[in-house]
Amino acid sequence: QLHLVQSGGGLVQPGGSLRLSCAASRFTLDHYAYGWFRQAPGKEREGVSCISSYDGSTYYTDSVKGRFTISRDNAKNTLYLQMNSLKPEDTAVYYCAAVRWYSNSCPQRGTQYDYWGQGTQVTVSS
Hints:
This protein is an all-beta fold. Helix content is 0%, strand content 48%. The protein is built from no helices and eleven strands. It has strands spanning 4-7, 10-12, 18-24, 32-39, 46-52, 58-60, 68-73, 78-83, 92-100, 115-116, 120-124. Strands 2, 4, 5, 6, 9, 10 and 11 form a seven-stranded mixed sheet that branches. A hairpin with a 6-residue loop joins strand 4 (32-39) and strand 5. The model has no long low-confidence stretch (mean pLDDT 93).
């Protein structure tokens, strides 16, 4: 069983930055993929970014490319999402997720993940 505990998030003005963290109960260099998802009120869950531990490949949805960066710190067993140049449309509850994975590309659909963090609110507003 893998437990994911999220931290970070909060209220930020447009153009500001936030960093989300996702601490895993265990962390392996190989065999896991990690993702960040978000869900805004009245909208479906959206895949934001993911990273494959198999080859380090990453994915970003078009709306966050160039603004968000996914990374991991193996020594701290933690996954991060650095969010810069935030926009009001980035407002949502953000979730981290993990799944055992043995492929070059990370999974982009939420249904492909087995483990989820508790979610954290990100609000971008002036």
